[in-house]
Write a structure and sequence with these properties.
With about 260 residues, the protein is of the alpha/beta class. It contains twelve helices and nine strands. The chain has a single domain (about 5-260), classed as Aldolase class I (TIM Barrel). Strand 4, helix 7 (about 140-145) and strand 5 form a beta-alpha-beta unit.
């Protein structure tokens, strides 16, 4: 089992939900990224570090902005691995890298997974990698993830057909990332009306943990969805707080309290 699988199994045993916090690596700078992780580790269960990319297809304006700022500061995979290595000296919180296929593929798939394991990465999310393409040349991503004991975490959109969603979920060795809305990332007033029926369907089809992201930004979302999923992923709302120079720690603390209390 990967460290993420062990974590989610333990949370389920305690009837608790996971809280995953997304940060764009290197935004607004490396020092701040590392500080925020250490500030929120007592409230977050998993840290998701976004790999900045010039042509994102799933990110809304907020994360696109942070990604562009990171790119302007020359943040790349080598520097992101250094962030993970530094964090690993101070905390064992599971860390997931989220990035598009292009920079990972250009870095070298086996090189990427090899260094990821050595620095302490626990999982990888590649949002533009379809289930059918995960066996691409140079070893195959699923196979490499297994070889290096790194969780393979697939995306499922609300528009994914049931039979295909089940197959995607079964490929996971961590959790399934289910989008709360149709469209790109970004804080929303509410989640899609289709989400609860979709989660209900998925729960019947798979035992793989289901975590919901895209638009999750307030306690009301958690209260509404808590009985239908295994955890929540919060991103754009966090990036916006960083942009406004407001406290991420107090926000995450409040969300964690909501998860525990509802």
């Amino acid at each position: 089992m990967t460290r993420i699988e062990k974590l989610l199994t333990e949370l389920k045993r305690k009837n608790k939900k996971a809280l995953v916090v997304f940060l764009t690596a290197g935004y607004p700078d490396i020092k701040t990224t590392e500080k925020i992780i250490l500030d929120i580790e007592k409230y977050a269960d998993i840290i998701e570090l976004g790999i900045p990319f010039s042509d994102p297809i799933a990110d809304g304006a907020t994360i696109q902005y942070s990604s562009q700022k990171s790119l302007e500061k020359k943040i790349n995979l080598k520097k992101i691995f250094s962030i993970v290595k530094n964090i690993r000296k101070k905390t064992d919180i599971p860390i997931v890298l989220m990035g598009y296929l292009n920079p990972i593929y250009n870095f070298g798939l086996e090189r990427f997974y090899n260094i990821a394991e050595k620095t302490g990465v626990d999982g990888v999310i590649i949002p533009d990698l379809s289930n059918e393409d995960s066996g691409i040349p140079r070893g195959g991503i699923k196979k490499l993830a297994k070889t290096y004991n790194i969780a393979f975490i697939p995306f499922i959109a609300l528009t994914t057909e049931n039979h295909r969603a089940k197959k995607i979920a079964e490929s996971s060795t961590g959790f399934v990332y289910i989008t709360a809305v149709t469209g790109i990332t970004g804080a929303r007033k509410d989640v899609s009306n289709d989400l609860i029926p979709y989660l209900t369907m998925m729960r019947k089809e798979t035992k793989t943990p289901l975590l919901v992201g895209f638009g999750i930004s307030k306690p009301e979302h958690i209260k509404k969805l808590k009985n239908y999923c295994d955890g929540f992923i919060v991103g754009s709302a966090v990036i916006e707080l960083i942009r406004q120079k407001k406290s991420v720690e107090s926000f995450i603390k409040q969300l964690k309290k909501s998860i525990n209390n509802f």
